[in-house]
Amino acid sequence: MKILVTPTSFGKPENAPARQMLASFADEVVYNDLGVPLKGQELLSRLEGVDGYIAGVDYITADVVAAMPDSLKVISRYGAGVDRVDLDACKKRGIIVTNTPGANATAVCELAFGLMLASARNIPQLHSAVFEGRWPRSDGMELAGKTLGIAGLGAIGKKLAIRAIAFEMRVMAYDPYLDHDFTVRHGIGAAQWDELLENSDILSLHVPLTEATRHMINARSILRMKDGATLINTARGGLLDEEACAAAIRSGKLRGLGLDAFEQEPLIDSPLKGLPRVIFTPHTGAHTAEAVRNMGIMAAQNAIAILTGEQCPCVIQ
């Protein structure tokens, strides 16, 4: 049995239990020697003879799937998102795809909340000013009493909602598959998309990237938002039209942006670079010791379950 492991954080000390689990199960475990997400031939050359593949944010496109070896039985995503996996192509090849839902939910939701606080109180700008010897006065914004709109009330969105309520915020949520019991239990307002845009002081995105959600934040949707609203994105970069967001920051339509995901990663060039009231983090939402450990163990368990014919609760297809 041979397994390929490509997530760049799998070598961290927190993933020692997952690595031991794989070493005890497989005859050979191959790790990503490039230290970056793999694509094309970089990926295919490492899949030869592989039975199970624990995938990071590699580019698992249709042409790559078509050329994968017949030995491959499972792609176990290290994380919840599968937007870089061509699921249709995997289905045609009979390759099972799994993920690790909820493993990093606390980590991502806490970063989203951190970006909300940092934007509301201008923390990065004030830190830089004091570091440079200045002592400015800056009027921030309290979160208490404000309306937080959550797009996508899944595991991450639910955790964010609970924390926002503790901060005395009003919470509204949009989700095509809304958990109504949860919203009623916690006093969360159910909203349609346009209603969420129009009523949110802060809007936080927690949806997958699909053709339906790509550029869901665009010039039209920004126009419907409150003047001076703040936008938080710890999900996927493609959810935002960065040109439209840059124009909204320059005009003052948006008060601020807190972004952990970008259309181009690493972020080399973006219309948002250099603009005031924009906070960047390097897609680090899932990078806590706890989340890394949880994702590693779940990804390893999923791969082993499929390869041994056991039931796996995290099968996507």
Summary of the model, kept short:
By secondary structure, the protein is of the alpha/beta class.
Structure description:
It is a single chain. The chain has 317 residues and is an alpha/beta fold. The chain folds into two domains: 2-103 and 288-307, 3-Layer(aba) Sandwich (Rossmann fold), CATH 3.40.50; 105-280, Rossmann fold (3-Layer(aba) Sandwich). Helix content is 36%, strand content 15%. It has twelve helices and twelve strands. The protein has helices spanning 16-25, 40-44, 62-66, 87-93, 105-120, 123-131, 155-166, 180-186, 193-199, 219-224, 242-251, 289-307, and strands at residues 2-5, 28-31, 52-55, 74-77, 96-98, 147-151, 170-174, 189-190, 202-205, 229-233, 254-259, 278-280. The strands form two sheets. The chain has a seven-stranded parallel β-sheet with strand order 8-7-6-9-10-11-12, sandwiched between helices. Strands 2-1-3-4-5 form a five-stranded parallel β-sheet, with helices on both faces. α1 links the parallel β1 (2-5) and β2. α1 (16-25) runs parallel beside α12 and α5 (105-120) crosses α7. The chain is globular, with a radius of gyration of 21 Å. 40% of the residues are buried. The mean pLDDT is 97.
Question: Which CATH class of the largest domain?
Answer: Alpha Beta
CATH superfamily of the largest domain: NAD(P)-binding Rossmann-like Domain
Shape annotation: globular
Domain module count: 2
Oligomer: single chain
Biggest sheet overview: 7 strands, parallel
Rounded to an integer, what's the Rg over CA atoms?
21 Å
Annotated CATH architecture of the largest domain: 3-Layer(aba) Sandwich
Please state the average pLDDT score.
Answer: 97
Derived from helix and strand composition plus strand pairing, the structural class reads: alpha/beta
**Relative helix content:** 25-40%
- Stretches where pLDDT is under 50 for at least 5 consecutive residues are none
Q: Give the spatial strand order of the biggest sheet.
A: 8-7-6-9-10-11-12
Count of extended strands: 12
| Percent of sequence in beta strands | 15-25%
